[in-house]
Amino acid sequence: MAFVSVEFLIFICIVCLAYFIMPAKGKWVVLLITSYVFYAFSSWKLLIFLLITTATTFLTGMQLGKISKNTKAYIATNKETLGREEKKLDREKQIQKKRRVVLLMVLLNLGILIFLKYFNFLAGNVNKLLGMAGGETQIPFLSLFLPLGISFYTLQAIGYVVDIYREKYEPDTNLAQFALFMSFFPQIIQGPIARYDHLAHQLYEPHAFDYDRVAKGAQLILWGFMKKLVLADRVAILVNQIFDNYMQYEGLVLFIGAIGYSLQIYGDFSGGMDIARGVSQILGIDLAINFDHPYFSRSLSEFWRRWHITLGGWMKDYVFYPLSLSKSFNKLGKKCRKIFGNYIGKKLPTFLAMFITFMLVGVWHGSSWKYIAYGFWNGGIISASILLESFYTKCSTVCKIDVESYGWKFIQMVRTFILATLGRFFSRALTCQIALYMFLHTFTSFNPWVLTDGTLMELGLKGVDYVLIFVMILILLVVGILQERGIHLRDSIAQQNILFRWFLYLGALFFVLLTGIYGPGYSATEFIYQQF
Amino acid sequence: MKKQQAVKAVSFILLFLIMFSLTSKVLIRCAEDENTLSRVYSMYHTERKNSWSGTIIGASTVYNGWIAPIAWHENGIALYPSSWPNMPFCLVLNVIKDVQKRQNTDFFVVDIRSIRSLTENYRDQYVRYVLDSMPMSLNRADAIERSLDVLEQLHGEGSVQDDKLSYYIPFFKYHSRWSDLEKSDYVKFRSEMKGALQVPKNAFASKKQKRGNLTEECTALNDLQAQYLMELLDYAKENDLRMLFISMPVARFDKGEQEVQNEAFRIIESYGYPVLNFNTEEMYAELELDFSTDYRDKRHLNSKGGKKFTVYLANYIKENFDLEDLRGREEYKDWDKAYETYEAFYADGWAQKELEEQEKAKQGEE
Fold it and tell me: Inter-chain contact A520–B171, Cβ cutoff 8 Å?
């Protein structure tokens, strides 16, 4: 069931009705049932994978909790007889046990993800290598289906298990409730990747009907539809035209395609998030924020802190920190300091951990070399900026640049947007080779006249479409600036008189209904991140 | 939820629905040419309730050939055309039901030629002509379901191109017209000539036609044709409808289609309903149809041919069906006005046409 469909809107109405009329005790059951119904509608044949991940994650959590409890109980009862060394030994044993359990769970679930998502990619590459080595054996390709949302719920499950391992919170003891945490319908398909301590209790607690909250949730859904249908799906027409026929274009047109994709993916993904968050808000559940005006970022690392925040946060907590703080990285740091001196030696392990993290971010997006290149681009630039940080500082001091001035901030934002946009060639183009071709041909031709010679009108959009895109960018810009200044727009609007409010709401509603790209005659596009 | 909040929410939803409905009408109104949807609009929205003697249902041949104001003037019958291009025959029953909601008539004339629509020529756009502006009702839902079902039976599963929901809520199909709206889109269309064709380039076009071969042979109807014909006849019997089945006069008529039509007439007669086949040598002579001046193309009469046909059919109906002469009544003044308007339209149109031809001839001589 697609988010952008009347069926989904009807489904939300049914869920809300059932949720609010259900007595407090049974509210979470409504969410559980409807979440599974939602998933089954989209992909019932692959429901088994969600069930496997849910069951194994739950059991792992229980097992980890049991190990910790047993060890603590043993130490507590033998507090006086056990020496310090023995207590330490017991704890180490406990950690070893827990590690084995975690490893088993991670291997199983990551194994499923890797097998379903990357098997054919790996097989293709191994076959190429075997062919180059003169071997005749070939690994056969399998027709595999990727369960909806597997990349999201697998990370969510691993996060939960690692947190239990770290004793951040107690494991869940109710399988049915935990199944709800794993399958909550607004966020299972494209995130946000939830943390157990933030989401679970909200799902299990009953929430009564609150008119203002429902109204605000509906507004957020409308805002999401506006981003998706008016902006993202409209720009998609231009983007598809350029990327599908890249050989016909060069220079600025290719760059316009990449800018278009930057706009499209923002409208698409953040719009989807707004819909998910709006639906949750109606139900009284506050989902994690996944976007914080990423195109206002002044550096690529800041961009990644504002873009897909929950993935970035997950990677930071479960990949970057464990790597950079690991013993082997410590040793590496020491060695590097000896070889390269204090400054670079200190930075190199961070640089490496960062690089690995971004490669993983890239690979997470899909099974293709282009995603590895995408990770390489982002990781490379961020790592380089870490290494060159002091150089930049010196340069700005020498050039007497006021780094806090609006002008400089604006230049940094534009620079970051361009860097992020250039990286989009890799995530959008069909293959890595095509992405490289487009990337290089962006710079090998100087053709600014395409802006005025009518070329833009031959890219699938009419003049009125460009006007609408411009209007949407303007709206997003104004809303973004106001939100950056701490103004809560929906609260401010709620304080206005009813005529103004209704005019605004109905205006927005009809703006989406009339100018949105949907219905017969258009090929409705799925949410981009749904495919990851 | 407090009472005040509930009132607010309901009011907002109502306001939205009203706006949605109005916008929808503007967007759909001229989604196709004015001969088609506007005609439906005039039928559903501007025609006075319970004012028709009956209706004549069929494809484009009907609205090209049937000139209701003439039938009114000659015989005092208010027989409005309910016709759309390539009207799918499976929808005849739905149109009858829909007409009966607004008009308390039991008299229906059906051009059986539209039975040819239930072949591979059937397209979903023909369904849209009829249904997009039909008011929402269970009958409309049934019409949508059956017409899409026919489409899938004829063209295979998945042949319905548009999202099914867009048939129920046409706004979803036409919403992108917002940037192409013109003044005429905002004006409610009213047929001043009671559904008679009022597009001069068609009404006053004249093209010499070759006479086609006629046959009296019959061939079996396909399953869909048989199913929907029987259904219509059964419904008519059950509801005591007075029906007349005709075949609108065309210049050339595919032999296979004629055979299907002849078989359909045979079945209809077995139900005891009268039939009038205008595609016979006797009928052509009876109508005094001139194949060099009375057609605008091989399938459609022009206004000259239409006049001849209307006079004949209206007389036939008057003689064979007990329809009240409604002339002289105060509430039917709009029909008198429609006749005057049509007469002026007809006279001006042909005069203009003659002038144009004289002009052309002059230019040729020069």
Answer: no
